[in-house]
């Protein structure tokens, strides 16, 4: 899946564009992820981003003294922090080397390409979540839509078992690849705030 490396930078650019439009008042908006408002989703991204980066660099994961819910990472200079984190993820996963061989995400060993697809999915799916929550539109390239559909389908059952994805949402027969990918992850493509 090293060809997916080329999808990372454009997806990150779209994602960052959505982030830049979130004002202080938007932080309490609900998102399509039922357990997260915008602030909690940003906290989630800031919490797990260093783990993904470490997996891409094939280095030890960060040591966390608190869990995600207690981390409080989406306060203060959250936009600068997430922009820098996104740039580091692009730096790592925008090259084919990060997609090759095996790596560890925490204690779990897995193919590096799976972690790369997770990063792409973070930008695309959570970018969509944040866009929907704030009344904006995320532009997903056709190649990125096909890539996240393939990876979401491949990981679907395991991700649902681990409560990473919700129950699959049925989509219309004429749904686009991205709408089908949203459905696989448990998101309703027609979600409104």
UniProtKB/TrEMBL annotation:
Show which residues constitute the signal peptide: none
Gene Ontology MF, one: metal ion binding
Q: Which Pfam families match?
A: MDMPI_N
Mycothiol-dependent maleylpyruvate isomerase metal-binding domain: residues covered: 10-131
Q: Which Gene3D superfamilies match?
A: dinb family like domain
Q: Which domain of life is it from?
A: Bacteria
- Name of the protein this chain belongs to: Mycothiol-dependent maleylpyruvate isomerase metal-binding domain-containing protein
What lineage does UniProt assign to this protein's organism? Bacteria, Bacillati, Actinomycetota, Actinomycetes, Pseudonocardiales
């Amino acid at each position: 899946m090293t060809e997916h490396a080329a999808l990372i930078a454009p997806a990150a650019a779209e994602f960052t564009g959505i982030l830049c439009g979130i004002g202080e008042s938007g932080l309490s908006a609900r998102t399509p992820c039922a357990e997260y408002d915008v602030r909690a989703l940003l906290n989630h991204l800031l919490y797990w981003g260093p783990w993904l980066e470490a997996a891409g660099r094939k280095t030890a994961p960060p040591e966390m003294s608190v869990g995600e819910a207690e981390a409080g990472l989406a306060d203060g200079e959250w936009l600068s922090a997430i922009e820098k984190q996104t740039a580091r993820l692009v730096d790592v996963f925008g090259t084919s080397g990060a997609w090759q061989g095996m790596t560890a995400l925490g204690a779990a060993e897995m193919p590096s390409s799976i972690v790369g697809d997770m990063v792409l999915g973070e930008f695309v799916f959570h970018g969509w979540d944040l866009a929907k929550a704030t009344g904006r539109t995320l532009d997903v390239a056709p190649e990125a839509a096909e890539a996240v559909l393939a990876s979401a389908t491949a990981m679907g059952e395991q991700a649902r078992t681990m409560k990473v994805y919700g129950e699959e949402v049925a989509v219309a027969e004429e749904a686009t690849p991205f709408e089908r990918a949203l459905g696989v992850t448990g998101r309703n493509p027609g979600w409104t705030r």
